[in-house]
Amino acid sequence: MIERLIEIFRASLFELGGQSVSLLWLFQLFSALLIVSIVTRFLKSFLKHRLLVKLGIDGGNREAIATLTSFCLGAFGYLLVLQATGVNLSSLAVIIGGFGVGIGFSLQDIIKNLLSGLTILVERKLRVGDFIEFDNVEGYIEEISIRSTVIRRLEGAEVVIPNSQIAEERITNWSYHNFEGRIAIEVGVAYGSDPVLVTETLLEAAYSLNEILSTPRPEVMFVGFGDSALNFELWAWTNRIDRRPKIKSHLTFTVEYYLRRNKIDIPFPQLDLWMRSPAENSNNLRSPQPITLPENKENRGQPAKTLRASLAQISYFQNLNELQMRSFIEMGYRKQFEKSEILIQQGDVVREFCIVLTGAIGAFHGNDTIGNPEFTFEAGMYFGELPLMLGIPSPGTLKALVNTVLFVIDVAGFEKLLQDYPTLAEDITSELANRKEMLENLYNIDLSGLNKENEQNPVVWIQQRFQQLFNKILS
């Protein structure tokens, strides 16, 4: 009986490429091909999740390398299996060529997807983990295979898209270099609102959120005059544009709160219908009264002191007109510190130019903040200009002596400030001269020639005068 079964399995069914095909041969062939497939899949997983991870290669490159390597080795393994089982591939060339035309027409979509998949993997314009928008589908690339790409939508569903569609259609890759992107909030305010106050309010709302970047700085655009409102747009950048819906909602809530707090009305379209008899004198008509939103607990109180009002108390900014003040307000934002809160430790890199709006900041030598400070920055004074210009770390520690509010400007804003207001450089030099004793104690340098050389370009003078000394300190 067993011998009979062996004879049946070994009996020749037909010949293929010079090889006699039997049931046993088919079993051996499919077993070998199955082993090659399992090894190929294991190799892809090993490369993607283990070896390439240890080599520090990012997720997108790991997917491309693992897929291409496993595909090439798999194809090579299948050829070896056919050759090892005795199939003469050269004798099958004519047969394969004959079937090629028919197979090409029936499988052209599959071949097209295969070639598109290879193109996507080689070009690496799209990588695993990228956040893309394609044909009203928004989500993360979960997997790029030879035939298709899997996209995990924000709702959690996974969409399988043929590679040919991805290769041919226009795709928005929100994370091609990084996840930074801009969010725009449209805001309409009532006619008669102060544009400078609106600008300040929108910027204050943007800077109050941790999700919003300070570099690039938020901007406010006055986009036009609407039928019932002055139309603005708040442009704010975030480093997680893939979370745009949630961040935009949070920012919109914040904008509404700050507008309400500063008594800025958000209008709504309205029609006033007046009826009078022909005999009524038009001079007796009363002017229509504006409709306002009802007051609530939030807007009954007095609004907080505006940034413009705080800056206007500083002598240098008193002569700025509204447009200049608006431009200046856009360069920075307000930042609050509690009493005894440390702003900067000794040796920290200084990245901001600060103006004291209210309160006081103490400058202490070293990290010891107990006792009296070497110098006190009070309302209307500023600090951080010298480290910013020379690129040096802080020589001492700055601490809030009382509850303090600062107007903070980053490095790019400080450079723009000096370009837009060149007289500020002269004012900085004069202020440095006034603080000569404090700077000499903190920096251990001689400032005796501060106002004697190159008065036309004090910034260049300061850089040339102190660069060598600060290099010694840094070394």
Describe the structure.
It is a single chain. The chain has 475 residues and is of the alpha+beta class. Helix content is 43%, strand content 21%. It is built from 16 helices and 18 strands. It has helices spanning 2-10, 23-54, 59-84, 93-106, 108-123, 163-168, 195-207, 244-261, 297-300, 307-312, 322-329, 385-390, 411-420, 423-434, 436-443, 458-474; strands at residues 12-16, 19-22, 131-134, 137-144, 148-153, 158-162, 172-173, 181-189, 219-225, 230-238, 332-337, 342-344, 352-358, 360-365, 375-378, 382-383, 396-400, 404-410. The protein has a five-stranded antiparallel beta sheet. Strand 1 and strand 2 form a beta hairpin. The longest helix is centred in the first third of the chain and has 32 residues, at 23-54. The model is unreliable at 284-303, 450-459 and 465-475 (pLDDT under 50).
- Please give the CATH architecture of the largest domain: Sandwich
Strand content: 15-25%
CATH superfamily of the largest domain: Jelly Rolls
Side by side, the strands of the main sheet go 6-5-4-3-7
Overall mean pLDDT stands at 76
Tally of DSSP β-strands: 18
Please summarize the sheet with the most strands: 5 strands, antiparallel
CATH topology of the largest domain: Jelly Rolls
Outline type? elongated
Q: How many domains comprise the coordinates?
A: 4
Low-confidence stretches: 284-303, 450-459, 465-475
Q: For the record, what CATH class of the largest domain applies? A: Mainly Beta
Radius of gyration: 36 Å
Number of helices: 16
Structural class by secondary-structure content = alpha+beta
Give the proportion of residues in helices.
Answer: 40-55%
Distance between the termini: 92 Å
